[in-house]
Amino acid sequence: MKPVALLIAPLALLAACSPQPQAEPAVTASDAWCRPAAAGAPAVGCYVTLASAADDRLVSVESPAGQRVEIHTMSMDGGVMRMRELPDGLPLPAGETTALKPGAEHLMLMGPTGALDEGGELPLTLTFEKAPPATVTAQIRSAPHGMAH
Ligand SMILES: [Cu+2]
Predict the structure, then answer these.
(1) pTM (2 decimals)?
(2) Which CA distances in Å does 128 have to 45, 87, 88, 89, 98?
(3) How far apart are CA 102 and CA 88, in angstroms?
(4) What's the rounded mean pLDDT across residues 79-102?
(5) Residue 2 pLDDT more than 70?
(6) pLDDT on residue 1
């Protein structure tokens, strides 16, 4: 038995030292919702929770319910909350959950094609740098109490 044990020990050591395999790129999108809007509204905020297995990035979003969808962030600028587009998209760190929500990162559905009535829904197709694209159904509902855009 001695020669076998000698053979196994170095192999076990090798396995312990090799780096962890990279997680497969995969993003889970959940709890998507958009604010209601009257017909002719210029833009409306949409939100979604993203959980990524590997380091990834939300690079673009599309929806047939609007002319285009922008990825926005909000920051304080001279005491005023302002939003701006993230031209490189939104980073999604491995193993973390990123919640797009009112007052923080959000999606902006530009030029909705019609009224967005509370209780309705619309599709959002999310494109990632590595993970396959995902289409989610966003519920149209009002923001929870006390939450600003
Ligand atoms: Cu915005």
Answers:
(1) 0.80
(2) 20, 14, 11, 9, 14
(3) 20
(4) 95
(5) no
(6) 53
**76 confidence band (pLDDT: 50, 70, 90):** confident
Distance 30 CA to ligand 1 centre (A): 20
Q: Separation of 27 CA from ligand 1 center, angstroms?
A: 22
| Ramachandran angles phi, psi of 75, nearest 5° | -150, 160
Decide: helix, strand or coil at residue 63: coil
Please report, as a single letter, which amino acid is at residue 44: V
Q: Are 90 and 58 in contact (CB under 8 A)?
A: yes
The 8 Å CB, 24+ separation contacts for 84-89 are: 88/57, 88/59, 89/57, 89/58, 89/59, 89/60, 89/129
Helix (H) or strand (E) run with residue 10 in it: helix 2-17
Question: Beta partners for 70?
Answer: 108
Distance CA 31, CA 49 (A): 6
The residue among 74 and 149 whose pLDDT is bigger is 74
Taking the centre of ligand 1 as the mean of its atom positions, its distance from the CA of residue 11, in whole angstroms, is 54
CA–centroid distance, residue 147 to ligand 1 (Å) = 14
Domains located in the chain, CATH noted: 36-131 (2.60.40.1890)
